[in-house]
Description:
Blueprint: E1 6-10, H1 17-24, E2 37-40, H2 47-50, E3 55-60, E4 63-77, E5 83-89, E6 94-100, E7 107-110, H3 131-139
Parallel strand pairs: 1-3
Antiparallel strand pairs: 1-7, 2-5, 3-4, 4-5, 4-6
Amino acid sequence: xxxxxxxxxxxxxxxxxxxxxxxxxxxxxxxxxxxxxxxxxxxxxxxxxxxxxxxxxxxxxxxxxxxxxxxxxxxxxxxxxxxxxxxxxxxxxxxxxxxxxxxxxxxxxxxxxxxxxxxxxxxxxxxxxxxxxxxxxxxxxxx
Length: 143
């Protein structure tokens, strides 16, 4: 049976989950059919595991706050002539239990065992705390 692996990525310049959703709603951040995509320089070597149910987990202001199931990886030819990888995700952001994460460059693999759990049913519509407060609480173990 094939294993599953996720990706984790910093959402640079994003203030909160709503800001990430707003960015993904722009034409620049979408595939021609309207799915959100993130263009990255490196192609994941563990493609089969990612496409076996993996998600991209988004780090916002030092905290993993949400995820999106990955639909596929597309080749993307950028204006500079370099072929890149477009990580195409399912529309919509799934909130996860806020989990602190130190800054890193690019993306990283994230095993299912190390991935934060989804926010429990019924709590998805709660007004999120400000990112700084969420991070401070997560740093001391309050989720």
